[in-house]
Design a protein that fits this description.
The structure holds two protein chains of two kinds.
Chain A: H1 4-18, E1 25-29, H2 36-43, E2 50-54, H3 58-70, E3 76-79, H4 81-96, E4 102-107, H5 121-125, E5 132-135, H6 139-154, E6 162-167, H7 183-189, E7 205-206, H8 212-244, E8 252-255, E9 262-266, H9 270-283, E10 288-293, E11 295-297, H10 301-307, E12 313-318, H11 328-334, E13 342-347, H12 357-369, E14 377-378
Parallel strand pairs in A: 1-2, 3-4, 4-6, 5-6, 9-10, 9-12, 12-13, 13-14
Antiparallel strand pairs in A: 5-11, 8-10
Chain B: H1 5-9, H2 24-36, E1 41-45, H3 49-52, E2 66-68, H4 74-87, E3 93-98, H5 101-105, H6 108-116, E4 122-127, H7 162-167, E5 173-177, H8 182-194, E6 199-204, H9 208-211, H10 218-227, E7 233-237, E8 241-246, H11 252-260, H12 272-290
Parallel strand pairs in B: 1-2, 1-3, 3-4, 4-6, 5-6
Antiparallel strand pairs in B: 5-7, 7-8
Classes of the chains: A alpha/beta, B alpha/beta.
The complex binds thiamine diphosphate and iron/sulfur cluster.
Amino acid sequence: MITGNHAAATAAVLAGRANRSGRGFCSGVYPITPSTECMEFLCLQDIEKGHVVKVESEHSAMAVCIGASVSGARSFTTTAGNGLIYMAENVMVAAFLRLPVVMVVGNRAVGPPWNIWTDHSDSLALRDSGWIQIYCGNNQEVFDAVLIAFRIAEDHRVLMPVMVCQEGFVLSHTMALTEIADQTQVDQFLPQLNLPHRLAQTPRVVGSFTSSRMIEAHREQHHNAMRMAWDVYTEAQTDFEKTFDRRPPDPVVTYRTEDAELVLVSMGTIAETVNRVVDNLRDRGLRIGSVRVTMFRPFPFDALKKAFTGISRIAVIDRDISLGFGGVLWGEVRSLAQPGMVVQNYVSGLGGGDVRPEHVEQMVKDALERKTTGPSIFVGVGE
Amino acid sequence: MNRPESYQNSHLLRPGNTNCGGCGMSIAFQMFKRSIGDTPVQLVLPACCAAVAAGGFPFSAYGAPVLLSTFASAASTATGMAQVARLNSEDIRVVCWAGDGGTYDIGMASLSGAAERNEDILFICYDNEIYGNTGGQRSSATPAGAGATNILKGKIEPKKDIMSIIAAHGIPYAATVSLADPDDARRKFQRSIKEKGFRFLLILSPCPTGWKSDPSMTIELVRLAVRSGLFPVLEVENGSRWTINVEPDFSKDDLARYVSLQRRFKKSEIKPDEMGAEIDLKWKTVRMLAGCNTGV
Ligand SMILES: Cc1ncc(C[n+]2csc(CCOP(=O)(O)OP(=O)(O)O)c2C)c(N)n1
Ligand code: SF4
């Protein structure tokens, strides 16, 4: 029984040790609720050929990871909410330098108003930062995602950093039965990191100035690298299953979507609640299903299109809001809508608000009755 | 372009770079390289003129591996590099080379953090007393009376005393470097590249473009700043043992000449006398800190 924070840190330590035959492990960390216990745990471990630097800010935490990674070490950090936003400049640098850093974000509302509880608006604000984003549904997924994150980040076809998102408190502080792994298994799953553009002794510049046309060429390469993550993830899932005897979730997880008239799309732990509502309402004869997006970047277009085949109504639940637009997830899902489809957005659970079964039922009722897509609806506000 | 390796390796900042003529920072690079010889270094450059000097991808004006860090992060990026070098028992020396903006201002927190942790980094600040890269705005290193593109007349606040701040961290070695005193400079470069832990060097680095001075007067300006007492040449060991390395003559003529050789003090019409009072105050502190340690 461990918390999400300890699951994440345990996986990071195992991954760090696994690079002892390579250039080791080095990480910069800074505390913020609800990710503090992850960094504390990491700091107290004995990591062979590893070092954790307790820096003076999140901005510097990511800078240490950048310096370590560019020198060929495996690197990891964790933060949340305003910490992630403060770190943002260097978050983008890690991606644009193609550095395979892994970061666990304990999703937290961005203040003000100050609130330490969960929502997805911190990591979604960095949607376009060039990081692969995985949203976890339980503690086991957090542990597994950290290991698989190193695998895809360090694959030479990808070489992009990975953000593993776990909802603050809901996962970060909740103890759950979690299978961890032996060092030998992790050693096998994570071969030593070999960074092709490692800064060694040859005179050259990493992160140089470029012309307009040249930066386009770089961005196109970055984009293509991100798009490789789907295939690499699938391969890694298979390998993971071979090594650890369990399979991490697909980029899109469907639940009772066959023959459904309406599906509810969500990320993170809300999907658990949605699945229960699906069971209850199916018992009452409603044809509804649930779709959980676990990999938000690169966005799983094909898997989602497949999940939406034959469906005319989609309800998208966002634990975030892009002010002046609507839910961020909704915006992405809506881009896949066929003409005539209703794709309605429900914003709920900001700042740790409970998204309860009755809220989901309210969404289902509205989504089944409406003729057209309307503006985003806030559900559960002020309760 | 294919020059022999020996030629490439003889320069840290190679000829043909984009720095302005007479740039103090270019001279500092030459003196630094000549002092440290073949010691392998990795450079971390935050946003500043030295970063621009690298040139455009895929070329590099630097004869060493370089990482361009974000403006605020030179010391923390270098921390990651130095720690991994240590983990792998490599003898490479990680050097941050930053302007006053990346040192006194936006880089202050990460610099202070790395100093407090005593990371194995040499942090060199070439202080041109303005933001050169963005066209010459004020920094907290700009002296009172000097103009800048975002100040109407002249700066009112005095220059921040970075050496006291750095010394207060108790790091193994900190020193100011005069480009007009090559023997003292060489000794400091050689000592600081070898020493373990956090080391800090401050180089007064005239900027003909921003100071509106003649490019041929760069070294002369440093000489005048040292002689007049404007730029104390000193070193601090373990944050406590202050030594004055060059005794100024506090000549009023030198100070007047220093001001007259630049046009950045014109608008404020600051008088050398007013600057003289500032110098007296500074030296009271320096002498108090140094006790009787005059290394002259
Ligand atoms: C976060 C951030 N803010 C602002 C800038 C713009 N900027 C680039 S260099 C610079 C000034 C650099 O001044 P200094 O450190 O004194 O070095 P110099 O240019 O004088 O060599 C500024 C403001 C930036 N690159 N990054
Ligand atoms: S602007 Fe000043 S500091 Fe920058 S390259 Fe030119 S002379 Fe040097």
